[in-house]
């Protein structure tokens, strides 16, 4: 045969050669799949459910009054609120309840909170009342220098809410609780300080009180606007100009009537005093942080319409319609749908009436500039 010349003459050597040939053959078949058809479909990777971030829980589920005074919701209670020098009960409440000198004229003035009178005093008539956090939150700002703010010594708490972050403010304190620091978490009823009469303007000890506010924050970039104006003193985000207060007594009252109270629901009950149609380069920061206040189609990049409370709290916003854009023309803003009954004595004067109709006033220019910065 033709292989005869290549075969070894020794039988043992021949067995080794045949064994090696068989091994090579198996390796070859193995590489080719050894006659089996493999399943090369992708391996199914088990999916792991991704937990979506939870919306903040409602901080109004557990609430404390800001002092030991529990009669805040009574009708005209005696000794509960601290009036101004006028002695008028209403002057301690929220709203256009005061008269102030503006230039050379006495004008209606808006009060952004409520003034709660002390229940206990020492022999020098100084208050002894503790001041408490009203809801779960954190200490966002602590000012311990009495003379650099009309608020005097004051503490601001921020609270996470499904509608967005809101603030509570506790002012004219005699002192801040030892150890209270910025960023510290607080619970309802935690002591923040002691009631006093601190302020950059003199408050007599006889009229000591807690000034208490609840509200929304106008712009997270306020400090940049303030620094650009080179204004002082600087309280960062928690300067009074950047705080948009709502009525604390109405908040407490609605919370008492409805344990399922939500801030979003409450904002929808605040009456609209006027609407402002304005051209904006971008959606204001306020509505990015409080997105549930937006109504209708998504922002179109054109003019918007803000529905505002008496003191300028934007309650809702939408795109301007074609008619409103036409009436706006080349102007930057236009006031419409003023409710004179809601605007009342107009203590903030963000919008004013002249012979040409309603327009944004001088106070309103800063307010609008802060919102749109």
Helix content: 10-25%
Structural category is alpha+beta
CATH top-level class of the largest domain: Mainly Beta
Shape summary: globular
Count of alpha/pi helices: 8
Task: Work out the number of β strands.
Answer: 17
What CATH architecture label of the largest domain applies? Answer: Distorted Sandwich
Roughly how many Å apart are the termini? 100 Å
Query: Roughly how many Å is the radius of gyration?
Result: 35 Å
What is the succession of H and E elements? Answer: HEEEEEEEEEEHEHHEHEEHEHEEH
CATH superfamily of the largest domain: Glucose Permease (Domain IIA)
Account of the 3D structure:
This protein is an alpha+beta fold and 373 residues long. It has two domains: 58-260, Glucose Permease (Domain IIA) (Distorted Sandwich); 270-373, no CATH class. Helix content is 19%, strand content 25%. It is built from eight helices and 17 strands. It has helices at residues 11-31, 222-228, 248-257, 263-269, 285-289, 322-328, 340-343, 362-372, and strands spanning 95-102, 105-111, 114-116, 130-132, 137-143, 153-159, 166-176, 185-186, 191-195, 210-217, 243-246, 274-278, 304-308, 314-319, 333-336, 351-354, 357-360. Strands 3, 4, 5, 6, 7, 8, 9, 10 and 11 form a nine-stranded antiparallel beta sheet that branches. Strands 14-13-12-15 form a four-stranded antiparallel beta sheet, covered by helices on one side. Mean pLDDT is 88; it is low at 1-19 and 23-52.
């Amino acid at each position: 045969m033709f292989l005869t010349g290549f075969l070894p003459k020794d039988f043992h050597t021949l067995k080794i050669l045949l064994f090696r040939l068989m091994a090579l053959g198996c390796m070859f078949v193995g590489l080719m799949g050894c006659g089996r058809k493999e399943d090369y479909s992708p391996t199914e990777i088990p999916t792991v459910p991704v937990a979506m971030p939870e919306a903040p829980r409602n901080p109004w589920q557990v609430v404390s009054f800001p002092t030991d005074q529990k009669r805040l919701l009574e009708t005209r209670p005696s000794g509960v609120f601290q009036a101004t020098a006028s002695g008028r009960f209403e002057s301690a409440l929220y709203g256009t309840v005061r008269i102030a000198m503006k230039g050379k004229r006495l004008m209606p003035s808006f009060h952004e909170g409520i003034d709660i009178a002390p229940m206990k005093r020492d022999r020098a008539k100084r208050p002894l009342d503790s001041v408490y956090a009203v809801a779960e939150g954190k200490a966002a700002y602590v000012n311990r220098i009495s003379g650099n703010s009309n608020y005097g010594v004051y503490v601001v708490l921020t609270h996470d809410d499904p509608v967005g972050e809101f603030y509570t403010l506790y002012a004219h304190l005699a002192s801040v609780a030892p150890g209270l620091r910025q960023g510290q978490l607080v619970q309802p009823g935690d002591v923040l300080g002691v009631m006093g009469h601190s302020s950059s303007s003199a408050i007599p000890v006889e009229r000591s009180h807690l000034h208490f506010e609840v509200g929304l924050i106008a712009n997270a970039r306020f400090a940049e606007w303030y620094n650009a104006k080179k204004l002082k003193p600087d309280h960062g985000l928690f300067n009074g100009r950047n705080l948009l207060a709502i009525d604390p007594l109405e908040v407490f009252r609605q919370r008492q009537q409805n344990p399922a109270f939500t801030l979003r629901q409450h904002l929808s009950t605040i009456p609209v005093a006027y609407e402002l149609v304005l051209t904006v380069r971008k959606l204001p920061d306020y509505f990015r942080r409080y997105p549930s206040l937006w109504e209708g189609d998504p922002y179109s990049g054109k003019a918007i319409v803000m529905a505002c409370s008496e003191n300028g709290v934007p309650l809702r916003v939408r795109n301007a319609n074609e008619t409103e854009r036409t009436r706006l023309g080349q102007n930057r803003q236009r006031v419409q749908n003023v409710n004179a009954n809601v605007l009342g004595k107009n203590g903030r004067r963000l919008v004013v009436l002249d012979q040409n109709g309603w327009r944004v006033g001088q106070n309103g220019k800063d307010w609008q500039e802060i919102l749109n910065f």
